[in-house]
């Protein structure tokens, strides 16, 4: 399939020039970026794309969530392995990805959940993720019942994927002009969810947008994109506010 020949296109977009508000911490065997509001018992795990946990764009998202009242933590789900770089050879991407399976992150998730509960006093938990992280969100929302809400942003879909066994409400954000996630796959996802899913869900396609638009596009690049970038971010926060 077309979208699997180069399955993570997050080189599209901008690397933000952004000074972060939080701090880096050690969480058992991995590092994580944490940003905390003054006082809350709500927390969100923010899962990075292929460019890893130190990408300023993803930390910008974490800080935005913290500004909306959540402890936001962006862990290194690659567990010390090198993130992808825009200058890397795309012909080697598939081999690189095999050692970073978005569905094999339970050890890291366990450590982060323990940290949030014991060190941050978190009692209400959610998760958001971008691209590679969007796939990871789907996995976690079928695995961890304590995650009360999930937002999967442009996580790649395979025809064989069945994510109907979601444990709690999950919101799926897609871009109409995403060259790597064909709309027929989004339709198939909706059909499977409608037939089998037992919890609240929403699938939303944002007109005219391309892969990565919520966290890989600066708002000031194109006036036509700005409303959809802002809408995607607002929708993400509203979903969390509703269910966490």
From TrEMBL:
It comes from Stercorarius parasiticus. It comes from the Eukaryota. This is Carboxymethylenebutenolidase homolog. The gene is Cmbl_2. Belongs to the dienelactone hydrolase family. GO terms for cellular component: cytosol. One of its GO terms (molecular function) is hydrolase activity. Residues 30-243 form the Dienelactone hydrolase domain. The lineage of its organism: Eukaryota, Metazoa, Chordata, Craniata, Vertebrata. Keywords: Cytoplasm, Hydrolase. It is found in: Cytoplasm, Cytosol. Its main location: cytoplasm.
